[in-house]
Records
---
Amino acid sequence: MASVELTGLFKQYGATPVVRGVSLRVEPGSLLALLGPSGCGKTTTLRLIAGLETPDAGTIAIGERLVSDGAQHVAPEKRGLGMVFQSYAVWPHKSVEQNVAYPLQLQKRSREEISQRVSEALGWVRLTGLGGRLPQQLSGGQLQRVALARALVAKPGVLLLDEPLSNLDLALREELRGEIAALRARLGITMILVTHDQSEALALADTVAVMNGGRIEQLAAPEVFYRAPATPFVAGFVGGANLLEGRAEGGFFHWRESRFTLPAEVSTANAEGVLAVRPEDFLVTLGQGGGEPELTLSARLFAGQQVEYRFMVGEAVLRCMGPPLAVSPGAKVRVSIARALFFAR
Amino acid sequence: MSSKLVAAGLFSVLAVFALVPLGVLLLRSTGEGWLSVWREDGALWALRGTLLTASGAALFALVIGLPVAILLGRTDLAWARAARTLLTLPSAIPPYIWAMGWVALANPRAGLLNLVLGPGTLDIYGAAGIAFVLGGAGLPLVVLPTLAALSRIDASLEEAARLSGASVWKTLLAVPVPLALPSALSGAALVFLSSASSFGVPYILGVTANPPTPTLTTRLYGEVLMGAGGLHRAAVLSLGLLVIAVSVLVLNAWLSGRSAVRLSSGKGLSHRPLPLGRARWVTSLLVMALLAVVIILPLSAVFLTSVQPTWGELRGLTFSHWQGVLSSPRTLAAAGRSAMLSLAAAALVTGLGLAIATTRRKWLETVGDGIFALPGTVFALALIVTFSRDLRFIAFERVALVLALGNTLTLLLIAYVAKHLAYGIRNSSDGLSQLDPSLAEAARLSGASGPRAFLDAVVPQLRGPLGAAFLLTFLTCMTELTVSVLLVPTGAEVLGTLVFELQSYADPASASVIACAFIVMILIVITTTSVVARARGARR
C-alpha cells in the first residue's frame, strides 16, 4: 500500500484544457473517489496517475517515488499499479486463469507460485472453479471480477478503478460495491475510484473529491458533503439541491417573482447569490397564512413514503419532497423553505 | 516521438521502392521524343484497344451485374445463397484462367461449343471476346458493392411505391435501381480500371486474333521484350495507362461521394423481399443459367482441357497430363519459387501493413492504396526502369552500397509486396479501429512494456484480419501474372508465367492442369476460411 500525491496537475488536448490544477493526497490504505459529471476531468486525472497520459505540468508521486514531474514520466508498467477498466478489458483470447496470471508471468514468477496466487486471487473475487472458462462464457459481473482479480494479483501499491460498475445492472452493481468494500478491508490496499454515481462514491470512499470543469470543487469526507457543501455546484451535484439564483435582503430571499422567508440559521447581509435548497428542505402546505409564495403545481410524482412535487417557475423547475397531500397538478400550493445554504456571489 | 520515427522509416521504404521509381518512370515518359513514340505505328491503336475493351467490359459487368444484384438483394429470387457464393468466384480466380476456359469453349476451329454448334459459330478472339471475359471476371466488383448499398435500403421505401400503385417490376425500377446506381457505376469504373490494367486476357485473346487486337499492356510487354530502345518506348506509353488509372480513380471518388448521401446506416432496417410472383421461377432460372454460362462453363472447360488426350478431342479422356505436369521438374521448380515468393510477400505485406496501420497516419495508408490501384504493368515498368542498372550509393565517402536488383527474384518480391501492401494496411487498420484501447492499457498496467502489450493484447485480437490479409496476398501472388511477366528473371519462371507460356505457345492442356490446381487451391482456402469463420461466429 502506498500514498498518492498530485500537485498542480494540468492536461490539455489541443486547445481544450481537461485537467486544470488538480492537487490532492491519498493516504496509504485509504479510498479516494473522484466524483463528477462526464467531462469533468476525473477519468483523465486517473489516466494521468496510471501513466496512460502524460501531464503538461505538475507532479505525481506514488509512495515516496516521483513518477511524473512534467518532464520525465515513468512508464505505466513501472508504476506498480493495478487498474480496472470500465469496459472490463478482459482479453478475449485468454482464459480466466491466463488473464489473471499475466501480471505474474511478466514478473517471471515460478509456475507453482503463479498457479497458487492466481487461485488465491480468484478466491478473493469468488470465481473459484471458473479459471478454465473463456471470457465469452462469462457474464458482465463475472468479467468485472476477472478484471479485479487481474488488477490485484500482483499486490499493487495502488488500485485504480475507472467507473468499474457503470456497465452493470443495478442489482449487480450493489453486489460488487459490497465486494469492493470487503476486498479493501481484507487487503488494505490504497484505492482511487472514478465514478459519476454519488451514492457509489459516498458509500465506498474515505475521501471524495468532487470535480467540475477540470478542477476539484471540494475535497472532504463523505458526510461533510451533505452538511457543508463548499460550492453551489457541489450542493447541486451531491445533494441534488435546487439552486435558486436571486437576492437576499432583510431576512428574505427574492427569486424571480417570489419572496421566500430565509430560515433563521441563514444569517447573511444583503447580497446577490445562490440559495441551495435540497428537495426535502422545502415545506409544501395547503393552508393559508404567512407571506410565503403560492406556486402552481405542475407535476406530482409518487415516490414511496414521500411525494415529489414539481413547480415550473419560468424556465426553472423546483423539485420538492414532502408527505402526500391531496392536490393535483394545476392547484396552487404554498411553498416555504425550512433549511438552506446561501452562497454569496 | 518514436511513432514519428517509425512513420518516417516506413515512408522511406515506400519512397525508395515505389514512389521514386514511379517518379523516374514519369520523367522518362515525358522525356525527349515522347511525342514521336505516340505517333509510331500502332501506339494509338493499342490505346484504342485498351479503351474499347475496358469500356466493353465495364458496360457488360454493369448491364449484367446491376439487374442480378437488384434481384438478389431485393426480391425473393430462388437459390439466392448459391448465386451469391458463385458471384464471389470471378474475382478470386485470376482473369487469365477465364480466358483459357473461353479459348477451350469458343476457339473458332476447335472450341467445345463450336464442336456442338458447328465450326466457326463462336469466336472468342478479338475485342468483343476480351471485353466479355474481362467483364465476367469483373462481375463481383459491380455486384458486391451494389448488394451492400441495397442492404441499406429500408423495405418501407419500396412498400410506399407499391401502395402508390406500382407493380413489383416498376417498384424495382423506381426505388432500388436509382438508389443503388451510384454504387454500381463506381463498381463499373473499377471494372474499367482493372480491365485496362489487365495483361493476360488481352494477350491470350488479342495477340493471335485476326486482325490482332493490341492493348497498351500487351504492347508494353512487346516493347520491353525488345530491349533498351523498347524500354524507352514502353516508358512513354505507360503514361497512357497512368492517365487512364488516375482519371478513373478521380471519377470513382466523385461517384462514391455521391452514393454516400441517401442510404440509411443500418440500424433498425427491415428487410422484406419483394415477391416476384408467377415470374419467380422463370427469373430464377434465367439468373442461374446466366451464372452457369459466365462462371461454371469456363471453369469446366479448363478442367476438360486438362484431361483431353489431344486438344479438341473429347474421346479417351485421360489424366496423363496431370501426372506429367505435376511431376515435371519445370513445374516443381516454378511452384517452389512461387511458394517461396508468395509466402515471403504475404508475411511482409501483413507485417508492414500492420506497422503502417499502427502509426495511424492516414497519408501512409493512402500511399499504399494508390500503389494498389495503379496498373501492375506500370508499376513493374517503373521498377525495371529504375533498378535495371546497379545503383551505387557512397556513404561516409568510404562505404559503397550497391543495389543490384535488376533481373532478380528480389525485385519481383518487392513488386509483389508493394502492389499488395494495401491488403495488409486495410485489414489491420479496420481491425485496429474496432479494438477497445483499454485491452492494451490493461496489459501496460499489468507490467508489460509498450511493444510487449501490443504483442500480447493487440496482435492476438487481429488474428482474423491479419490471417485474411496473409491468405489473400499469398493466393494472389501464387497466381500473379501481370507484374511477374515483366519482372521474372531469365530462367527463373514462376507459376503464373509458366501457365502463360504453356497456354500461349505450346501446350494448353498442361496449362489447364496448373490452372485446375490453382482453382482447387483457391476453393480450398475459401471454404476453409468460411467454415472457420462460421465456427468462430457460432462459438461467440
Note: Chain B is about 75% helix and 0% strand.
---
Amino acid sequence: MTNPEKPLEMQPDERLARRYRSERIFRACGLIAIGFALSALVVLFGTTLFQASGVLTQPYLELDIAFDPAEFDPLGDGSEQSLAAGNYAKPLRKAIRSLLPEVKGRREKRSLNRLLSAGAEYDLRAFVAAHPDVIGTEQVFSVPLSEIAGLYLSGEVRADVVEADRRISNRQIAWLDALVAQGRIEEKWNTRFLTDGDSREPELAGVQGAIRGSILTLLVTFVLSFPVGLAAAIYLEEFAAQNRFTDLVEVNINNLAAVPSIVFGLLGLSVFLNVFGMPRSAPVVGGLVLALMTLPTIIIAGRAALSAVPPSIREAALGVGASPTQAVLHHVVPQALPGILTGTIIGMSRALGETAPLLMVGMVAFIVDLPTEPTDPSTVLPVQIYLWSEAPERGFVEKAAAAIVVLLGFLIAMNAGAVWVRRRFETRS
Amino acid sequence: MNSTEISPIVDPPGGVGEDHRMKTKIQIRNLDVHYGDKQALADVALDIRANEVTALIGPSGCGKSTFLRCLNRMNDVVPGCEVAGVVRLDGADIYDPNLDVVKLRARVGMVFQKPNPFPKSIFENVAYGPRIHGLARNREELDDLVRQSLKKAGLLEEVENRLEEPGTSLSGGQQQRLCIARAIAVSPEVILMDEPCSALDPIATARVEQLIDELREQFTIVIVTHSMQQAARVSQQTAFFHLGVLIEEGETEKIFTNPSNQRTQDYITGRFG
C-alpha cells in the first residue's frame, strides 16, 4: 500500500470493494494484453494467408497442338533420342498464333510468345515423352501462362496503369482479353508449387527443393545434436563432480546458447568448409552448424528436466541395489523424457527457422535440382523465403508468402508434436 | 580407524551361533561422519542384533538418519559427505574399497520416509529389484516372487487384481507397504527404515508396525522414528542419539523404564526434542 494509514480508516466493506476493484483492473489488463497479442497474430496470419492465396491457382492456356511427326520425331523412329531432339517451341508458337491470326510481324509475334511461360515447352516435352502415341494426332494441351500474363489476369497489374510502368504492353493485354473471350484460359490448381524446385520464372518456381533441404538439414541436426545433448545433460546433471571445471563447462554452455547464430555460420565456413573441405550448400554442413547451435538448448532443457525428477526416485532405485547408471537410465531419464523431448523440439523448430548461419555455408545458392541426399546442394525454407522476397519479379511476392505459410505449417506441426509427445509420456507414467 | 578396539567376531560369516537371536548382524565402531566442515556423527559404536528391531531415536538433526544411511552406504551419493570408522556386516567391512556397493544394497534394503514408488505399475515396482539382480529365471518365477513379496508386505489382498495399475495410484499407507514389498523382493538380510510412518495416518501406521513385527522373524530391522510410542511398541533394542553422539543404547524396555543417562530420561519424558 502506498499510504499505510488510509486503509485502516476505511470501513471493512469499503476496503473489500476496493480489493475487488483492483482485482477487476488486474484481470482487465491481462485480457487487454492477450487481446493485443492475439490481434497481432491474426493480422500476421491474415496478411500472409491473403498474399499466399494467389499461389493456389495458376492460369493455363488451352492450345490445339498438331503433333506433327516432322517436328516431334525428327529421326522418325519414335526412340528417346529422337523425341529429345524434337522441336517443341515451334508447335507452341504455331498453336497460339492460330488462335490470334491478326498478329503479324516479327516483333509482334515475339511479344505474343512472351505470354507463354518458358516452362510450356518443358511441359509439352514431358507430355510427349509420357505419351509417344499422340504423335501424328491433334490434341488440346494446356500450357502455363507467363508471370506477366498471370499478374494481369489476377488483377494485380491493371490496364489503367501507364504502359511504361508495367511489363505487359497494351497489345499483350488486348490479346489476353481476346483469349479470355474465346474461353481458352482456365485457372488450374497449382500443384507445381509443392512439387517443383526453384526457378527463375515465378510461375514455375516451387518449394519442394527447399522442403527437402529443410528436412535433410533437420535430420542431420537431430541425429547429431540429440544424442550428444542428451548424453552431455545426463553426465553433467547426474554424474559429474561438482568442481570448478564443471562450473566452467556450465557457464560456457549457457554462453553458447546466447551466441548469435551467424557466429556458428562463420565457424562452419572456416572449419567445415575451409579446413575439412566439406561440400558447399550441402544440408550436411548446414545440419552440422545448426546442431552446434541447438546443442546448448538441448543440454540446458535436458538438465532442467533431469533435475526436476524428485531425488526420492533415485534413492528408491539405489536402495534396491541399482547401480547409479541403472538408476539414471531406468528411472530418472524416462521420467525426464517429456521435458527433454520438448526442449529438443523447441531447439529444432528454432533451427528450422534459422537463416543467417546457413547463408555463411552457401545454402543461399539458386538451386533448381531437388536434393535427395545430405551432400546434394540445396537450400532451406527460410532461405528460400529470403531469396524470393529479394527477387525483383513481382510474381515472387506471393510465392514468398506461400513459402512462409509452408514454413509456419512445419513449425506448428513440430510444436503440436511436442505437445503430443509430452501428453503421451505424462499419461503413461 | 583403530582396529584393536573391535571385539572379535564370534560367529563366522553365515555361520549359526548358539542363540541366533543374540547374534550381532552389524557391528559399528568409531564411526565419524562429516558433511563438509560439519560433523554429523562422532565416534559411534553400536551392535545391531540379528532378527531384532533396533529403533534409533533422538531429536531432529541428531544424526540418526545419517547413521542409518551409513549402513548401506547411501551417504556415498551425498556430495561432501565423508565417513570414517568401521561398519561390519557379518564381520566384513562394508567400506572396503573392493566391496561392490550394488551387492551391499541388495543385502541391506531401505524404506524411506516418504513413500517413493516408481512411476510404474505395482508389479514393475516389486519386480524391478529381482530383475536387475537376476533373481528370477523366467516370468513365472518373477510372478511368484512379486506375489510372495506383496504377501509378506501384507498388500497382496488389496492389489491382487490391479497389479498393472500405477504404484502411485495407491493410498499413502499402501504405497509405503509397496515400498516395503519392493525392499523385501530382493531378499535382503537387513531392512533399514527411515521414519516409515511419518507420512501415514494412525491406521496405516498400525498396519505398518504390525508388519515390522512380522518381518522381524526373517529380517534384521533398523528403524528411525520420531515417535517414542512407536519405538516402544516395535523395537527390542533402542539407541538414543543427541547432537551426533550415541548417548545410550540397550534393551528397549530398559531405555524406556530406567534409562541410565539424564538426557535420555529428559528426551523420552518429553522435556526436550
Note: The first helix of chain A runs from residue 6 to 9.
